[in-house]
Specification:
308 residues; four-stranded antiparallel β-sheet; 5 helices; 19 strands; 41% strand
C-alpha cells in the first residue's frame, strides 16, 4: 500500500506542485481496502447468465473503496462496426473521479494498461465530456460525478478470433479526500458482438474533432497575450447551444495545465483566459501541442492548439 501511495505521489508531483495528497487520510482509506481484483468464478455466480447473442457482454463488478468498476462491450455503430468496450465506474452520490487533467485542486487522473491482452492490436480510451467541479475551499477539478463510462475502441490482430481484453487501471475516487484505487478487469469480446445502445449513447458524449456547427461549440480564435506582466492564453469560443460553454486544456506531454477562466460571455459566445504563470513555466510550453476540449449545452468538440 505504501508503494502505491509513493508511486502516485511521484507521478503527480511531476505534473504540478498544486497537487497535495494527505498521506494519513490515504493510509486510513487504504487500510479499508481500496480495490479488490475480480475472481471470475465467484463473481459470475452472483449474476444472471446471459447469452452473448442476446445481450452485450459484461464482466463481473470489481468492488473497492466507495466504487465499483467493470467492463461492458458491444458494437455501437451498426451491424458491421467494430466492437467497443466500456470501463464503467460507479460511485456513491456526490463522489467524483477525474478527467485526464484533474484540475487545479489536484487529483489522480486515470491510467489504463492493456498490455496483458490477447489478440489485441490497439485499445484507445476515449473521454466523455467532463464537468467543472468546484470546491469553494480547495478550488476546481475536472471530472465526473457518481458514474462514468470510458469507451475503448478495440482493434483485433485477427478479426476471426475474439479479443481477450485485460486491463490494469489506476484512478482516484474523491469526496472530502482523494483516495487512489486500482482494479484488474478482463473480458472476451467477439468481433460479432451484439449491439450496445448504452455504449452508443456514451460515444455520443465524446468530444468530436469534426464538430457540427449547428450544435457543437467551436474555437473561433486563440492568441497568446504577453503584453501584461502575466502572459495568458486567450480563447474565443462560439456555442450554438447557448451561454453555458466551458473549456478544458490537456497536455499530451504530461505538463500541468491551469484551469481556464471565463472572462466574458453572452449571445452564444465566450472568452476564456489561461494564466500561463499559474503552476507552469511558459518556457516549457514553447512549441508544444495542447488539446482543447469544449463542452456546450448541446454538444462538445476537441481541437489542438500548436503553441509558438
Amino acid at each position: 500500500m505504501q508503494a502505491l501511495i509513493q508511486r502516485l505521489e511521484d507521478r503527480h508531483m511531476k505534473q504540478t506542485t498544486n497537487i497535495r495528497i494527505n498521506r494519513v487520510a490515504l493510509l486510513a482509506a487504504l487500510l479499508g481496502t481500496i480495490a479488490v481484483h475480480a475472481v471470475p468464478s465467484l463473481a459470475r455466480a452472483a449474476e444472471p447468465a446471459q447469452s452473448p447473442a442476446q445481450s452485450p457482454a459484461q464482466s463481473p463488478w470489481v468492488e473497492g473503496f466507495n466504487n465499483k468498476v467493470r467492463f461492458i462491450a458491444g458494437r455501437a455503430g451498426g451491424e458491421k462496426s467494430d466492437p467497443v468496450a466500456g470501463i464503467e465506474l460507479q460511485m456513491p452520490k456526490d463522489w467524483k473521479t477525474y478527467w485526464r487533467n484533474p484540475g487545479e485542486a489536484g487529483g489522480i487522473p486515470p491510467e489504463f494498461d492493456f498490455s496483458g491482452s490477447e489478440n489485441l492490436a490497439s485499445a484507445t480510451v476515449l473521454y466523455p465530456a467532463p464537468l467543472r467541479l468546484v470546491d469553494p475551499k480547495a478550488g476546481s477539478n475536472i471530472g465526473y460525478k457518481d458514474h462514468v463510462i470510458f469507451p475503448v475502441r478495440v482493434m483485433a490482430k485477427d478479426k476471426a478470433k475474439p479479443v481477450s481484453l485485460k486491463l490494469n487501471a489506476t484512478y482516484g475516487v474523491c469526496k472530502d479526500i482523494c483516495v487512489p484505487a486500482e482494479a484488474s478487469l478482463e473480458i472476451a469480446i467477439a468481433m460479432d458482438a451484439p449491439l450496445s445502445p448504452e455504449l452508443a449513447s456514451v460515444l455520443a458524449t465524446v468530444p468530436t474533432s469534426a464538430p457540427d456547427p449547428a450544435k457543437d461549440p467551436l474555437l473561433k480564435s486563440w492568441r497568446i497575450d504577453d503584453a501584461a506582466a502575466k502572459p495568458k492564453l486567450v480563447l474565443e469560443v462560439k456555442d450554438p447551444g447557448g451561454d453555458d460553454s466551458d473549456a478544458f486544456l490537456f497536455s499530451p506531454d504530461g505538463l500541468y495545465m491551469p484551469m481556464t477562466k471565463k472572462t466574458s460571455g453572452g449571445k452564444g459566445e465566450a472568452v476564456f483566459e489561461v494564466d500561463l504563470t499559474d503552476g507552469v513555466d511558459i518556457k516549457d510550453l514553447k512549441g508544444k501541442t495542447l488539446s482543447l476540449t469544449l463542452v456546450g449545452a448541446k454538444g462538445q468538440s476537441e481541437t489542438n492548439i500548436q503553441l509558438p
